[in-house]
Structure prediction request, 171 residues.
Amino acid sequence: QLRGSALWVGAAPPLEITDSTFDDNQIAAFAPGEAGAAIFIDGSQRARLLHNTISSNRDPGLRPALSLLPAAGIGALLQNNWLVDNNGGNCAVLGALLEVVGGNLSSDASCRDFLQGGAGQIKPLGQYGGPVPTRPPTSGSAAIDRGGCTDADSSQALGEDARVVPRPQDG
Prediction:
């Protein structure tokens, strides 16, 4: 029974992943079962994924980087996420009440209600300011200025990104 190579969430309290980068995770060998090359959420509570980059994750079985398989009637909120260059595709959403709020971008057509673009338009993981490594877009990327700067549920302004850089910022 396989799950997400970076993160697997089963029956758990409500989950929120914010300002995170899931990069270059790999499922070591093909094995049958449900999986996400980076994240697999099979939960009984609502998941919120906000302002994340999910990139260059690998699965020899070509399963997608993000797999959402919540319990019946449970949904997920996705806002300002960038899924790019994952070898098995970017998304698999099964049975989820999916709320997709502006700014989500996928480099393939697998993510329902995401804008498409950004393939190959991402810098390597590195220190681009702030306390954590990130993968910013390259110059001219479809991801630049794509995301919103307010929280989808509370409408409160988001002050800064994972690099502690003020939002919004042109380019």
Q: What stands out?
A: The two ends are 42 Å apart (CA to CA).
